[in-house]
Design a protein that fits this description.
Blueprint: E1 2-5, E2 17-21, E3 24-28, H1 37-40, E4 56-58, H2 64-67, H3 70-75, E5 82-84, H4 86-112, H5 127-133, E6 137-139, E7 146-148, E8 151-157, E9 165-171, E10 174-178, E11 201-205, H6 218-232, E12 235-239, H7 245-258, E13 267-270, H8 272-283, H9 292-301, E14 302-304, H10 308-313, E15 321-325, H11 335-342, E16 349-352, H12 361-366, E17 371-374, E18 377-380, E19 384-387, H13 397-406, E20 414-418, H14 422-435, E21 439-442, E22 448-450
Parallel strand pairs: 3-4, 4-5, 5-6, 10-11, 11-20, 12-15, 12-16, 13-14, 13-15, 16-19, 20-21
Antiparallel strand pairs: 1-2, 1-22, 2-3, 7-8, 8-9, 9-10, 17-18
Length: 451
Amino acid sequence: MKITFLGATQTVTGSKFLVSHNHRQILVDCGLYQGYKWLRRRNRQPLPLDIDKLDAIVLTHAHLDHSGYIPVLYKQGYRGPVYCHPATQALCDILLSDSGHLQEEDAGYLAKHRLSKHEKPEPLYDRKTAEHSMQLFRPLDFDQPKEVGDMRFWLQPVGHILGAGSLILECEGKKVGFSGDVGRPDDVFMRPPRPLPALDLLLLESTYGDRRHEPGDPLEQLATLVNDTVAAGGVMLIPSFAVGRAQTLQHLLVRLMDEQRIPKLKVFLDSPMAIEVGEIYERFVDQHRLSRADCHRMGQVITLVRSVEDSKALADEVYPHIIIAGSGMVTGGRILHHMKRLLGDHRTTLLLTGHQAGGTRGAKLLQGCDKVRIHGDWFDNRARVERLHGLSGHADYAELGQWLADSELTASTAIELVHGEPEALEAMRDYLRQTTDFEVNIGEYERILTL
């Protein structure tokens, strides 16, 4: 059995690992490269594999850095199965279509303003291609085994987001684990990751390999910030990711109101995608900590804003209130329109709830910029900019270490660190070498590992 590292090596994007044995091939994850331009160029380069010989794709979860390249392979002729948890399939149905739509928009913008070296810039794939690629998806419940040739594999729950799993693969007496993105043991929304079985090799994510999550109760911090905003007579704007984070925020705000820790006030979810995702979370209520009653209660309290017209009408709402809208790093979405009219008001609170990648508006706002550029114009920033801690969906290095300790791994298990920036990978390797007996290495792009 051979494993070729085709992504998520010394970066947190583009997750792809090709497993080969006896002329059969499985691609574990099929993610887009995101972020830096030199990485995004890889999305346009052909994968070093023969699509006609690829037997199956298996997804650990739905995030685009793990699933967003599937329409590219479909466009190139792949027609084999894509195995994943049913919740992952439901989320991909939304995320891939939206990804195609955004790429069409980006290509159109480049063409209109002649910002591309190509006379007619083309999207990596369009919405239609993304929607057609969904016909390849085949649901695979947790612990449901599947065989491709001599390779047998299954998914087991790992927290993080709905449907996320670690992949366990057996072949010729060897057992390999692909961690996927590992959730936290005390996540507000998702259940803790299940410990791993005995493995010969583990490909382990290291997103937070050099960081610990800050201590403290996010509920308490959120209550304080909401109450301060209400006292000032302002509006709280919360940029949010549509999958997981928007649902968690709604739950926290409803809980605080029900417990009378904040006053009852209007909360608007201004994100059609987050609304659709919320319906999927309610459908798979057995996969997370919230009950069906909790989900129903959110629907009673939160006002769902679907149309552009209703979104624009929020400008007429009486203060104070809360608006949750995409995108999480303030790079696009409806939140920008609300920021344009509210950032200049000192009573406004802009609450960032997740990691803000370098160079994004969110990162610049956290750094204290007094002006922000939106849709080509500069706007004064007089808002109170805060960051809500404790909502990350990724285990930090100590939580990963405890997960490994709770698993059935032995000193003979080899670990390859993937899905992390160089500093995080180095720190994670040092931590594991100091605290465990595992042989730990860092995965390298296009490296072939033979078992």
